[in-house]
Design brief:
This protein is an alpha+beta fold. It contains 27 helices and 34 strands. It binds ligand ANZ. Pfam families: Anticodon_1, tRNA-synt_1, tRNA-synt_1_2.
Amino acid sequence: GATYNFAEIQEKWLPIWDEIQPFRSDDPTDERPRKYVLDMFPYPSGDLHMGHAEAYALGDVIARYWRHRDHNVLHPIGWDSFGLPAENAAIKRGLNPVTWTYDNIDQQKRSMRRYATSFDWSRVIHTSDPEYYKWNQWLFLQMYKKGLAYRKDSWVNWDPVDQTVLANEQVMPDGTSERSGAIVVKKKLTQWYFRITDYADRLLDDLDTLEGQWPAKVLTMQRNWIGRSIGADVDFVIEGREQPVTVFTTRPDTLHGATFMVVAPDADLASELAAGATPEIQAAFADYLTEVQKATEIERQATDRPKTGVFLGRYAINPVNGERLPIWAADYVLADYGHGAVMAVPAHDQRDLDFARAYDLPIKIVVDVPAGTDEDGNVIDNNPAVTGIATGGEGKLINSGELDGLTKKDAIAKAIEILTQRGTGKAAKNFRLRDWLISRQRYWGTPIPIIHAEDGTEIPVPEDQLPVVLPPTEGLNLQPKGSSPLGAAEDWVNVPNPIDGSPARRDPDTMDTFVDSSWYFLRFLSPNDDTQAFDPAEAKKWAPVDQYVGGVTHAILHLLYARFITKVLFDLGFIDFEEPFTNLLNQGMVLMEGSAMSKSKGNIVKLSEQLEEHGVDAVRLTMAFAGPPEDDIDWADVSPAASNRFLARAWRIAQDVSSAPGVDFAGGDKALRKATHHLLAEAPGLIESFKFNVLVARLMEHVNVTRKAIDSGVGAADPAVRESAETIAMMLDLYAPYTAEDMWAALGHKPAVAHAVWPAADPALLVQDSVTCVVQVDGKVRDRLDVAPDIAEADLEAQARELAGVVRALEGREIVNVIVRAPKIVSIATKP
Ligand code: ANZ
């Protein structure tokens, strides 16, 4: 007979699928339940690689599964095609980013089609199309109107290699740029921001609604990133200054323990205070500030870093006891957290203690934290001045006037009450989250739709003049240089003021591409609508996304921004939900010999070569079979060749079936039917709990069972063999769509197998095999019954007593004892 040839099968089905477009999801009469299954869309950075192959294979298992469960499934794809990677790659090759990007998209599209991901190809979007980014500009304007988009002058993260600012989220924990790897420095610039901090509480609190639906790790990362602290704002009068200075503290209970104040050297306040001091102090401060600006935020927050600072020659007055506190500038206090100034309580805060010890400042204990013992039973001194360890724990307040004797918790409440009464403070909370810096000084992004009048006023581009299309690259120098290349496009940048026609200039910056991806899942719903960003009626039907699939690298940035913009659109009345992604699956990475694939390690496995050698189905199946989808896959440990052999075995079964389609399965071999129906019963639970690999294992077993049935007495003509082969084809479609379609055709069906609804398991075929139980009366077998092997004793006894033979034997006798050994024996004894 024929042999399994993956290349032939691929060539046969791809054009047929192209023609019948089995995955369109725009039939308005389709009333089945809907599922929106979304894979994070790719950057067009070269051809698809092994990481894509894994992500899209796993996402497709879920999309295909819901179709087989009779759902109307929306599974779209697009390209996140603006941004630095494309722009830098184009510059490096001396190409136009437009050409480079769209050539890559074409190549990825072709690869993706061949990879047979079940996308609805009628809904493709590219974020670099004016038809798409017009709506980024629209979104910006809606936010601008609400005061959620604004410009401010502040210290920003500056990537000296890419020559652009970065969002906080794009600075890695080691202080380097997520993109270029360069050490990020601080620069004071006027930039555009989205006011995400207005949403901090909601972004944090609503994470609770995602519990159990998103990976716990991602929820934790988001919570920490938002970082809410509860405490108080306290106002300190400054000698020689009209305005008091406010500090944020989580420990207002320790106010009596404050012995100095510290101001962030890079905060305007520090410069101002220094300016009022002696020339010596001014000079020392200026030198210090220069040093500080070389340090990264991460370095500044490191607890083990020696503390440095300068005395500013000024004093603050403690509002609770009138004490004079010297004011220092020190870089462990950050300019953009809280108010950029702290009341220092060295006894109970480690950083303050380190600083106090370095500069010989007083240490005053105000919480009596009991002395402890270490693991060897030694008493640990609780005096921070001696141990160098601040005592942050629980204890009773001392040396604190009205607060004396209170616990930490009660003292915090009381201190806030006192401050509020006196008008020198109030309850406050603070977030780690900063506003989202969205402007970039680069070409390949969405132009910011603002025009600057000569007098400096900002004029939003009227909505009917959108999109503001990027100028052609001809004549522009795209090399990173610290200001946007768009500023040099004279014809483009110089425009009449839309209000009075006077000379004005367009804003030359472009938006962070995370703006593009913050709402793209809505654009898929009406991708060709040129009258609105998305159709709210379609959003009602499809959104939010039921299942989102993508890498954990996006745990903070993209997911936080998308959640934020979703809430903004909710507030603006465009959608009726507040969380964009109901369920989230983070797939692992594909490694080679234990490490991430990289050019420098020379361990890159080329997807194209794998596909050439083993075929699409074997690669996809291998990705799904390697382990739980969340785990990394080491390509050195898996065998696409073995996957291929399994696919050939499965395929042969369909070739061998010799009954006709539509044959009544009822008369088929009972044992094989039972095996098939057990598989039908188990598979949905496995897929819905993301145990894709376990279902592959079950399919492998089932192919073997079916092969045995064909080769043994059952034979290829038995209806149970057809039933089994059809089930295998329908399930294999999740992983190996070409093979499944070819099996389906061999079994006499029309394409597409992807639309074959899995039959429900027949409960009659799920009952376990029965066991025969004998029933004795006074040692003699009087009857028998067939029961389930796991029958309960009481149940078995009750059934046994009703058997005709038993009833006859017991007639007129009195039962004295019944022994039940479920499921095999019931033994009844009567009175002699
Ligand atoms: C006095 C105090 C006493 C504090 C004490 C702590 C313990 P989180 O939890 O991170 O919000 N702080 C406030 N603003 C700061 C800034 N701009 N840079 C560095 N540190 C700052 O921490 C809040 C605490 O961090 C605040 O409470 C303040 O120190 C410090 F026994 O005030 B605390």
